[in-house]
Amino acid sequence: MAIRPVLKMGEPLLLQVAQAVEQFNTPELHALIQDMQDTMIALDGAGLAAPQIGVSLRVVIFGFKRNQRYPDADEVPFTVLINPQLTPLSDEMAEDWEGCLSVPGLRGKVPRHTRLRYQGHDQLGNAIDREVSGFHARVVQHECDHLQGILYPMRIRDFRTFGFTEILFPGRSFPDE
Ligand code: NI
């Protein structure tokens, strides 16, 4: 197990389209996911994409448990999602605040589909097929954007809703994605 450094915005690898995983249940894939999980937990994140630790593969993890720091947040089950496919289930979009471990100290308001279906596989190759909404849907869209080389600031419509967390929300903390 290892906590890996998270690449920050400006690194060219974060702008690449990541490659599909072709073999499941391999030692390399399990090691990658273990490192991603260790890194996400160490940084108290709600999600992490493989490119953020320098691996340009279509692997994301996410999950979020309500706790004392975040008493009002929706819970999201811990999920490993490989080669994801997203299908919006409505045209409705909602804006809400996001942060990213690759864009530390900042938050911005990002429009996302409110309901979507996601499909893919876990690390053993088992199929995943879920319909989700709310924060769960937001986190999935944020993580899967990383696989297309898209960071959330690229989706902000009004740059007046982009700034430093400590200025926008004094004294509060958030899980970054
Ligand atoms: Ni992110």
Brief synopsis:
The chain has 177 residues and is of the alpha+beta class. Helix content is 19%, strand content 33%.
Structure, explained:
Strands 1-2-3-6-7 form a 5-stranded antiparallel beta sheet, with helices on both faces. It has a 3-stranded antiparallel beta sheet with strand order 4-5-8. It has 3 helices and 8 strands; from the N terminus they run αβββββββαβα. The protein is of the alpha+beta class. The longest helix has 16 residues, at 27-42. It has a single domain (12-168), classed as Peptide deformylase (Peptide Deformylase, Alpha-Beta Complex). The model has no long low-confidence stretch (mean pLDDT 95). The chain starts with 26 loop residues before the first helix and ends in a 9-residue tail after the last helix. A hairpin with a 2-residue loop joins strand 4 and strand 5 (103-113). Nickel (II) ion is lined by residues 100-102, 142, 146, 177.
Chain-wise SSE layout:
Blueprint: H1 27-42, E1 47-49, E2 59-64, E3 76-88, E4 93-100, E5 103-113, E6 115-121, E7 127-133, H2 134-147, E8 162-164, H3 165-168
Antiparallel strand pairs: 1-2, 2-3, 3-6, 4-5, 5-8, 6-7
Bound molecules: nickel (II) ion.
Core attributes:
single chain, 177 residues, alpha+beta, Peptide Deformylase, 5-stranded antiparallel beta sheet, 3-stranded antiparallel beta sheet, binds nickel (II) ion
